[in-house]
Amino acid sequence: MSITDSHPVLDFVHTTTRHWWWLLVAGITWIVLAVVILRFNVTTVATVAVLFGVYCLLAAANEVATGAMASKGWRVVHWLLAALFTVVAALAFMQPGETFISLAAVMSFYFVFRGVLDIAKAISASSMPGWWVLLLAGLAELVIGFWAAASWSVSVVVLVTWVAAGAMIHGIGEVAAGFMAHDVDRDVEAVRNATGLR
């Protein structure tokens, strides 16, 4: 191998981290969405269900985009999540005015699953600085999910708060992941420059 040859590991890492800015933009968008959700004057379960359905569709789109930039194993996980979030959105849209209990059940399922995924991503990135932010985001999503599962009589305000908190937490996790990916991409460039590998 000559000094200007490419290295497959560096190429792979650069391919998966070069779009770090996408995670940053997505995270900021989720945080803005959380603020917008809290500004709604929501008074019915049907409105919250539609709002949560839109939230899940945005989460599905986010997973498709993230999956397109991920490694093969994580790509499958992200695309399966996108399909799952689409199903959850469909459930929220199907009978939006049914009951608080059914909506809380759908929301709890989403937040538990999302929390477990973010915890797994944090643990897999535990050697990187800032991984704990993603871990805390996953734990917070898990808490919201279990809280929603245990709440049989909740108000519209609580449901809206869960959706907004979930968006905020997810946004913080995405921003943290974006900065972690940026650090890795910068390190790959430093290795390439130091070794002459392209």
Automatic annotation (TrEMBL):
<feature type="transmembrane region" description="Helical">
    <location>
        <begin position="100"/>
        <end position="117"/>
    </location>
</feature>
<feature type="transmembrane region" description="Helical">
    <location>
        <begin position="129"/>
        <end position="150"/>
    </location>
</feature>
<feature type="transmembrane region" description="Helical">
    <location>
        <begin position="44"/>
        <end position="64"/>
    </location>
</feature>
<keyword id="KW-0472">Membrane</keyword>
<dbReference type="InterPro" id="IPR005325">
    <property type="entry name" value="DUF308_memb"/>
</dbReference>
<keyword id="KW-1133">Transmembrane helix</keyword>
<keyword id="KW-0812">Transmembrane</keyword>
<feature type="transmembrane region" description="Helical">
    <location>
        <begin position="76"/>
        <end position="94"/>
    </location>
</feature>
<protein>
    <recommendedName>
        <fullName>HdeD family acid-resistance protein</fullName>
    </recommendedName>
</protein>
<feature type="transmembrane region" description="Helical">
    <location>
        <begin position="156"/>
        <end position="177"/>
    </location>
</feature>
<dbReference type="Pfam" id="PF03729">
    <property type="entry name" value="DUF308"/>
</dbReference>
<dbReference type="InterPro" id="IPR052712">
    <property type="entry name" value="Acid_resist_chaperone_HdeD"/>
</dbReference>
<dbReference type="GO" id="GO:0005886">
    <property type="term" value="C:plasma membrane"/>
</dbReference>
<feature type="transmembrane region" description="Helical">
    <location>
        <begin position="20"/>
        <end position="38"/>
    </location>
</feature>
